[in-house]
Amino acid sequence: MPLIPRTGIDAIIARLSSPGERALATEELARMGPSAIPYLVDAARGTWRNAWGASCENDHQIRSGAVIALRRMGAAASEALPALIALLSHPSAPLRRELVHALALIAKGSSEAGAVEQCAAALAQMQNDPDVEVRYEAMCAIRGRVPVREL
């Protein structure tokens, strides 16, 4: 599967840090499908660098925006599970809340038992998160209830 040229995806990922453009950028990235996953994984991990070499390590808007784009892909983003699971202990509670929703939707749409089990185990672990909202949303996701965001 061909990868997207760096310059095009750089511009879209950089827009994740702009509140006014974030929703549209996550939608564009999600529509790109599996070919965008390697770039979104880098952005979620904080290792993505823009065209000028600047890192997004401390830009939580870009990092959580990448998780949102992966969430919007649903089961198609299952190859990103190892990177998403590695974010369970990230210090940003809003990023971990987005992670809950991404894991729930990947599991919901996946027909791969391994992916469903990985998501279920991660969500179970998130029920012990230090943030009460992350714990609550993980519990709701496990039970298949709202507030899991589908979009």
Structure, explained:
The protein is mostly helical and 151 residues long. The chain has a single domain, classed as Alpha Horseshoe (Leucine-rich Repeat Variant). The protein is 60% helix and 0% strand. It is built from 8 helices and no strands. Helix 3 (37-45) packs antiparallel against helix 4. The radius of gyration is 14 Å and the shape is globular.
SSE order and pairing:
Blueprint: H1 6-14, H2 22-32, H3 37-45, H4 60-73, H5 81-85, H6 93-109, H7 113-126, H8 132-142
Task: Please supply descriptive tags for the structure shown above.
151 residues; Leucine-rich Repeat Variant; 8 helices; 60% helix; globular; disordered N terminus
At the fourth level of CATH, the homologous superfamily is: Leucine-rich Repeat Variant
Note the overall shape: globular
The proportion of residues in beta strands is under 5%
Helix content: 55-70%
Low-confidence stretches: 1-5
Tally of DSSP helical segments: 8
Q: Between the first and last Cα atoms, what is the distance in angstroms?
A: 25 Å
CATH architecture: Alpha Horseshoe
| Main structural class | mainly alpha
Strand runs, count: 0
The chain-level mean pLDDT equals: 88
Largest sheet: none
Order of helices and strands: HHHHHHHH
* Rg of Cα set: 14 Å
- How many domain units? 1
CATH-defined fold name: Leucine-rich Repeat Variant
Write down the CATH class.
Mainly Alpha
